[in-house]
Specification:
The protein has 228 residues and is of the alpha/beta class. It is 43% helix and 15% strand.
């Protein structure tokens, strides 16, 4: 796989042991992809293969492109231009963007209900390794399928391409901590990638891993974060 593989969801912390949330938590930070938005990165991989992309020999360049893309070092035109170098000449910008966004599926069930309840008890933030094309697409998807603006779910969305840091870089957690104004130990964090959870815990956040086979709603109910 050359793009982040999502998990289906089970309730555990980074060590794999089920935990209740820490009572010292005063604010929550949630990942987007794999947590509030269902993903299937294989769809994007297959879409690019269908356009004629051959990964062999390009792995290092692709990793470098995607990491730079996620911290805002590459513009949309530059991102598309790189893909044009790897694809047949007849492939259009629109086809590249559609292939790139193919991994985005749908918002998780009961998203608005859950976050409305959470926001009555905690300041809630979103933190995502992402890029401008995905943000444009998933904000529109949540608007269309859930009937809400993503920004209405939280106090602030921290997008990696806007803040210049991506998980699991400690600088990412340091930046968000400074911005939201709580001590690290007062911040709860939910992500579906073990490396991101472990790095957050090393920084001092109360971090939890969402992995197969539950859901964000089940996670919140089981931790008694909300009562719905």
């Amino acid at each position: 796989m050359w793009i982040h593989q999502p998990n289906q969801h089970r309730l555990e912390n980074a060590s794999g042991k089920a935990l209740a949330w820490d009572s010292e938590i005063r604010a929550w930070v949630f990942d987007i992809g794999g947590v509030i938005l269902e993903l299937d990165p294989l769809r994007t991989e297959k879409a690019f293969e269908a356009l004629g992309f051959q990964k062999q020999g390009k792995e290092a360049a692709l990793t470098q492109l995607l990491q730079a893309w996620e911290i805002g070092q590459i513009s949309i035109p530059a991102f598309l231009a790189q893909w044009h170098q790897w694809l047949p000449p007849h492939v259009s910008d629109q086809q590249i963007m559609e292939a790139w966004n193919a991994m985005l599926l749908k918002p998780v069930d009961r998203l608005q209900e859950l976050f409305q309840a959470l926001c009555k008890q905690f300041p809630v933030f979103l933190l995502s390794n992402t890029n401008p094309l995905h943000v444009r697409a998933f904000e529109a998807m949540i608007r269309e399928k859930a009937g809400i603006e993503l920004s209405s779910l939280c106090r602030r969305c921290f997008y990696s391409h806007q803040i210049g840091f991506r998980k699991p870089d400690p600088a990412c957690y340091a930046y968000v901590t400074a911005q939201i104004g709580y001590k690290p130990g007062q911040i709860g964090f939910l992500d579906d990638t073990p490396a991101n959870v472990e790095a957050a815990r090393q920084f001092g956040w109360q971090a939890y891993l969402l992995s197969p086979p539950g859901s964000l709603y089940d996670w919140a109910i089981s931790r008694q974060l909300v009562h719905l």
